[in-house]
Amino acid sequence: MRAIEAEAVVRYTDAAGLPEALSGADVLFVYDFLSTAVPGAWHAADRLRWLHIASAGVDPVLFPGLRESDVVLTNSRGVFDDAIAEYVLGVILAFAKGFARSLDLQRESRWLHRESERVAGREVLVVGTGPIGRAIARLLRAAGLRVSGAGRRARTGDPDFGDVHSTAELTEHLPAADYVVAVAPLTEQTKGMFDAAAFAAMKPSARFVNVGRGELVVTSDLVAALAGGELAGAALDVFETEPLPADSPLWTMENVLVSPHMSGDFVGWRNTLVEVFRENFGRWVAGKPLHNVVDKQLGYVPSPEVRTR
């Protein structure tokens, strides 16, 4: 931030001091991307022109006051794409090769020969066709998996997904998938999209991976589906309530992999987030168009149209 301090008056604050720091500020950098402090301090935003959040998801700051204002909203799209894609490939391999079971047996000093699954040729449905979803699709295709997508608009010939189905018809396409990866942005339309009906549509051998937002899933329905054998397993990096409560049944289910909202957090990611803001700040000072401008009605940065057949 030293480069920015040379060009502007920078105020550092925690949630409690945000109203005072926000008064008279032109730019707000929300470094704590899980903070919910901005709506409560919004009354003090008397001259704010630009808000940047250090994450790809913008739901913590996308409240009515911001939506209705002229304040430009940008995010940190692009920072986490490849890391999250690697996480998704990793958990798919972990399921297919039974790594968790192998570790349990190792701790018991038990030599138990088993067969493992192939991932090549398996069907993956990636729900969310933004940059993270595309990075996932490219990496999984390189590993030999067959990938399709689900997004707002159905289309064919997509360079990364091939076929993209409409999320409005999601349950029609879930039965074909061996792995379902949730990476959609959290909007009014996507909240709770993975419910009892969605899980019932999946085949019992399918695995569910959530690297999007916890609120995409009705957790009680997921737990019931896993316990009832409607799903073979789940890898979950995000949850409706974070940290995941200690009494959640997800902790102890043998067919569930839990990670603490870290799928995109590679070594050095914090510095990269600051660098993204610093670069955009330079554009703002120079009067150039900002990168990663969020459509506040859609709730995400619209992707450029891709060529399709």
Q: How would you describe the overall organization of this protein?
A:
Helices cover 29% and strands 15% of the residues. It has 309 residues and is of the alpha/beta class. The chain folds into 2 domains: 2-78 and 266-285, 3-Layer(aba) Sandwich (Rossmann fold); 81-258, Rossmann fold (3-Layer(aba) Sandwich), CATH 3.40.50.720.
Question: Looking at the structure, what is the overall shape?
Answer: globular
Share of residues in strands: 5-15%
Number of strands: 11
| SS content category | alpha/beta
Count the DSSP helices. Answer: 11
In CATH terms, the superfamily of the largest domain is NAD(P)-binding Rossmann-like Domain
CATH level 1 name of the largest domain: Alpha Beta
Distance between the termini: 45 Å
List its traits.
11 helices; alpha/beta; 309 residues; 8-stranded mixed beta sheet; 11 strands; globular; Rossmann fold; 3-stranded parallel beta sheet; 2 domains
Task: Provide the fold topology.
Layout: H1 2-5, H2 18-22, E1 27-30, H3 38-41, E2 50-53, H4 64-67, E3 72-74, H5 81-97, H6 99-107, E4 123-127, H7 131-142, E5 146-151, E6 155-158, E7 162-166, H8 170-173, E8 179-182, H9 196-201, E9 207-210, H10 219-227, E10 233-236, E11 256-258, H11 269-285
Parallel strand pairs: 1-2, 2-3, 4-5, 4-8, 5-7, 8-9, 9-10, 10-11
Antiparallel strand pairs: 6-7
Helix pairs in contact: 5-7
